[in-house]
Amino acid sequence: MNLSNSSISEINKLYKSKELKPSEVYEEVFTNASLSESIIHAHLKLFQEEGIEASKLSDERFAEGKQLSDLDGIPIAIKDNINLKNHETTCSSKILSNYVSPYDATVITKLRNSGVVFTGKTNLDEFAMGSSTENSAFGPTKNPWNPEHVPGGSSGGSAAVVSVGSALASLGSDTGGSIRQPASFCGVVGFKPTYGTVSRYGLVAFASSLDQIGPITNSVEDAKIIFNSIKGHDPLDATSIQDTSIEIPEDKTAKVGVIKELMEDGISDESKNEVEKTIKLLEEQGNKVVEVSLPLTKMALSIYYLIAPAECSANLSRLDGVRYGSRESGETSYEMIENTRAEGFGEEVKKRILLGTYALSAGYYDAYYGQALKARSLITKDFDNIFQEVDYLISPTTPTPAFKFGEKTENPLEMYMSDLCTIPANLAGLPAISIPTGLSNQNMPLSIQLMSPARTDSSLLKFSEKLEKLVAFNQRTPLLKDMK
Amino acid sequence: MKKDIDIKSVAKLAAINLSEHEEKKLEKDLNIILEHVEALSKMDIDDEEISIHPLGEILNLREDISSEFLTHDEAMSNSPETEDGHFVVPPSLD
């Protein structure tokens, strides 16, 4: 049995029956990390000693029959923009390279109370801005399926560690696809919950009206277990919503819409084929699948690239070399701040701060930011109308499988296009999941994305579990096979 | 609507000291992006409402009650320079 590929519920059963100990699973994932890190560079930090200690405490709890939850003793990696007390939170940025968090994010408190063993912090595009981890100040993560290809981003490290088995699951954050796109590129499951269902307290803010924490896992069932553990209203996050979940059909009576605009130009044949293959399986099962049109999806990229940079320029203004982060010298305070930000931020972050500053500046605010917010409301209405007709929407997660390093770094729009299919869910606050379905001609993973109405996360996960069984994709990266 | 971006003045507003090379590269990239988002300004959506929360929720602040959280030292622990419990910065005036 390959433990690191096993499901959380299987492992939990073995823990309870005393056939397996958390420290044994931790040892295996740590071995996987030791073998793979020099090739893929997915972790920025491994918590070896702390992990051994935590897994032994979990051993004791199971020995005494006092397990804290189904996640007790499960090794989970955390994206390095989520705060863990007394550990660095770098956001893969030079400006925060020495920042040590004095507190736990709410999701960390919840996982800690569930007995989770934290394996380490994972690499990301600086401040979660990017789609390939090429923007990390500490070097990119490589795709475990082929290190010449990117793992996706921004949660590239979190997707790669699950794919390679150096954690059983991980947490990522998703602002425009940063959980689903890397999950798709690495052949694992990525789930972005409804906006506000998981507290953002302790997540370093990028674009506050779009950011959402979610799990990256080996299976939909694992995503469900982690989601159930981290969700819930949090008074420390003013955008957090009360638990008012809505149920929709989860079986063959569910009606599925295929988004016409995400099956047209700009989407590769390989990505379209995965959707068509999945539709066939759904139809064979008895689900009704119809084509639907969301014309504004074509504007989603423009809306996103005004709203997200505008919010980022405000959020990142706090990095001024005064209260935390690195500092460069200057004759005056203002000079010090200008030099600190010049030295501390990488090119993509500077680009987005400048774009956001411009979009919010006097004379341009209404034309850019105001107009984008109005268009966003229209997109949300379009989704509301479509969900009167269908229960779920299906599309590719990404326009292409994982691309090669350097392929999209020249023109910013080319990189941004890789989030074409994932951005609409963030704009409308919808839950969305990426499920691996097959491999490309070059043996790189391909996935489909399912979206559903806001607050229907539980139904989406149940329906996705059934779909995952129908698709029956069970390939794993060959990376560690030859090394063991 | 679109005018070419004045990179120097925007960098000043954003408090980032750019090198000449960065100015050139970022100006080029930003103009490509602004060109792309231009289509948005042509949409006739003046009457559309704006919502900040994607689900249209009202942002609820918690009650104004003090609670145990970070100590003063913890809150200051990441500052590059402090003195007697205060943040130290260079002079604000020339």
Tell me what the structure shows.
The complex is a heterodimer of chains A (484) and B (94). With 484 residues, chain A is α/β, with parallel strands linked by helices. Chain A has a single domain (3-251, 389-483), classed as Amidase signature (AS) domain (Amidase signature (AS) enzymes), CATH 3.90.1300.10. Chain A is built from 15 helices and 11 strands. Chain A has helices at residues 8-16, 22-40, 48-63, 106-113, 156-164, 180-186, 220-230, 269-285, 300-315, 333-344, 347-360, 366-389, 412-416, 423-428, 457-471; strands at 43-46, 75-79, 117-122, 169-174, 189-192, 212-217, 255-259, 288-292, 392-396, 432-439, 445-451. Chain A has an 11-stranded mixed β-sheet with strand order 1-3-2-4-6-5-10-11-9-7-8, sandwiched between helices. The two termini of chain A are 14 Å apart. Helices cover 36% and strands 4% of the residues of chain B. Chain B is built from 3 helices and 2 strands; from the N terminus they run αααββ. The mean pLDDT of chain B is 90. Chain B is flat. By secondary structure, chain B is mostly helical. A two-stranded antiparallel sheet of chain B has the order 1-2. Chain B has a domain at 7-41. The chains are: A alpha/beta (484), B mainly alpha (94). At the A-B interface, helix 9, helix 10, helix 11, helix 12 and helix 14 of A face helix 1 and helix 2 of B.
**Tally of contiguous helical segments of chain B:** 3
Assign the CATH architecture of chain A: Alpha-Beta Complex
Q: Beta-strand percentage of chain B? A: under 5%
Distance between the termini of chain B: 38 Å
| Total E-strand runs of chain B | 2
| Number of E strands of chain A | 11
Layout of strands and helices, then pairs:
The complex is a heterodimer of chains A (484) and B (94).
Chain A: H1 8-16, H2 22-40, E1 43-46, H3 48-63, E2 75-79, H4 106-113, E3 117-122, H5 156-164, E4 169-174, H6 180-186, E5 189-192, E6 212-217, H7 220-230, E7 255-259, H8 269-285, E8 288-292, H9 300-315, H10 333-344, H11 347-360, H12 366-389, E9 392-396, H13 412-416, H14 423-428, E10 432-439, E11 445-451, H15 457-471
Parallel strand pairs in A: 2-3, 2-4, 7-8, 7-9
Antiparallel strand pairs in A: 1-3, 4-6, 5-6, 5-10, 9-11, 10-11
Chain B: H1 7-13, H2 20-41, H3 72-76, E1 82-83, E2 86-87
Antiparallel strand pairs in B: 1-2
